């Protein structure tokens, strides 16, 4: 008998019919002899509907009250799931984030889990109940106020609860069949991966693969929880995220996949005096504005002028804030002007075997050159190469790299709808 | 500076516009220098919508999970109200029943408040915040599960919170202008009462006046909290429920009003052996089935036969359960047969001055006789006379009694829509 944590996203519980189907799957796991803990997101569009209601009142609601509002979403879905499970003759008990002991920071809308104290969950499991936990929410350690975790929060809840209960596996049910070598909407013959390491999954998530959020993978790696990503619409085997690079065998594939990201923009600061500390001053002001910078490149325009152009990428939504922050230090730093380019795309090749195989970069850049893709920025890690190109070249670039490393399968992947939170 | 508790029902917060209007009223009380605690129901049809969702899954959901589901309703309305108050530059903090310290029995769907421990509310008030509390909900003392209080629960929450905080007044904002001498939909010239005693209000509520629920009035009387019933759509003065019969002056009106009730049915058990204990056995089995009996009448058919017919009234919805319970003891008790009559109405005259004015009964029965209303059951208390008639005669009976005691005013009452919970 194992302890299994299952997480279902918003599209998996979007209406009564789907809730009933999830209930059947949960009951099946219980019938198979497992202790089952289920983490659920809010149903379908509930969160957006609640946000709309708040926006009808003001564009700038207080964070504490917005979190109170949004957490009604999981409350509804988890209670309905418990009711649907009861129809099968099994007892299910639902718990809010607070009741489940999900202790967080007090940063409303983007709280981080500090600890999970699962006393009530453990008691309910010991009584033989199926336990249901509201994803995405917790209670702040300092103020005892209700908090939400931000995007992808329900996955993180699932992994954190699995860690606290020392579960054997955390199954993430979603609307895709697992982790693929590329997005099947761009690369029709993308192949599902049976396994992927935490490190590779971290790189894929950081580079735009939406199947699992970064924070959730970080949590799973820290506590060594195997994460099993599966479709809630099929019985296909999915992808297991597990182990570390040290466990890799020589037979392991060199490359796990190609990720892409359309959500970033590029800011270029022209004519920055090429003196020590000038770039530091720019990035200090951006950090103070809580902007996450991704890739950075500096070009010295000419030796005589002693002026540099500095480009960096950042989430598109942060563009206006970043521009305003930079404008404030324009005179102090003494740069010429700033441009914000919203039409870039990023393609990344990820693979744990990359570091011991020197030919990877050459093949990567060769494929892009053959496809006629112009590269604007390049960055690498031990197990990843990322480049920025025009957004109009992005699909072409993903397919070229995917083909060059022969990552495809003979079977076309099935593509479903949107993703939950 | 006073401490004011205000309660707003579901129709008062049915949409964003109405939530904003309630926010203005709340902020006005704060600007007037008062500490303000607001108790809210779920918005408009939210509770019914949530019940519908549960019914799409099963007709018989577990009580714990149904309560978890329904309590999402007030969570939404209270957060939106807090957001709307923030727009005016005042800080509002919303609290669930559990956070507000509303401790209840564990009887899901009809829990009773045991105690209110308002530590967090007091702290928030001390910080200068406007406090918002979810009506209708609490947390069970034994199991720490979320509970709901049943119909009229939000009014009870408001009075209980007012008692715990030793508030100066509890204002119940609703869709009528106050307590009337009769339902203005039946008696167009019904008069609004400026004041009514707890005892009279208890009788009116028990006899079908829907403006305040029985439990709420009981609570207010026990803790001596003045309850001010007012319209949330107007600035009219409303009705204050206060004091006790002992405070009555001789100038007080003899009669406060006429209540009516269409929600009851009548069961008649024919041919019950007229021996000691037979009736007791019938009412024992009904009590075991948790059925609340209202009025009871026994007629002995004839001295020779030694058989009696026993009639009693009960909530219509409990009819089928009562019939099934009676059928089980048919042979033991030895009665002939049972009939269930769903077409009755009850009219009640309530007035604290009644007991010292002996002519009241005569005038009451005279008015009904003159109107040609046939009476089927009669029951009285010190300050009330109730009769049961055909439901088709009910409006006629209410008007006849209202006229006979000259309760009307020269002004027609304004009638609004439905009532909240």
Automatic annotation (TrEMBL), chains A, B:
UniProt feature coiled coil, ranges: none
Keyword set, alphabetical order: Amino-acid biosynthesis, ATP-binding, Diaminopimelate biosynthesis, Kinase, Lysine biosynthesis, Nucleotide-binding, Transferase
Molecular functions (GO terms): aspartate kinase activity
Gene3D superfamilies: Acetylglutamate kinase-like, VC0802-like
Catalytic activities: L-aspartate + ATP = 4-phospho-L-aspartate + ADP
Domain of life where this protein originates: Bacteria
Domain ACT intervals: 267-343, 349-421
Pathway membership, UniProt: Amino-acid biosynthesis; L-methionine biosynthesis via de novo pathway; L-homoserine from L-aspartate: step 1/3; Amino-acid biosynthesis; L-threonine biosynthesis; L-threonine from L-aspartate: step 1/5; Amino-acid biosynthesis; L-lysine biosynthesis via DAP pathway; (S)-tetrahydrodipicolinate from L-aspartate: step 1/4
EC number(s) on file: 2.7.2.4
InterPro entries referenced in this protein's UniProt entry, alphabetically: AceGlu_kinase-like_sf (IPR036393), ACT-like_dom_sf (IPR045865), ACT_Aspartokinase (IPR054352), ACT_dom (IPR002912), AKii-LysC-BS (IPR041740), Asp/Glu/Uridylate_kinase (IPR001048), Asp_kin_monofn (IPR005260), Asp_kinase (IPR001341)
Pfam families, A to Z: AA_kinase, ACT_9
Main function: Catalyzes the phosphorylation of the beta-carboxyl group of aspartic acid with ATP to yield 4-phospho-L-aspartate, which is involved in the branched biosynthetic pathway leading to the biosynthesis of amino acids lysine, threonine, isoleucine and methionine.
Family: Belongs to the aspartokinase family.
PANTHER family according to UniProt: ASPARTATE KINASE, ASPARTOKINASE
Protein name per the record: Aspartokinase
Species for this entry: Klenkia sesuvii
Phylogenetic lineage: Bacteria, Bacillati, Actinomycetota, Actinomycetes, Geodermatophilales
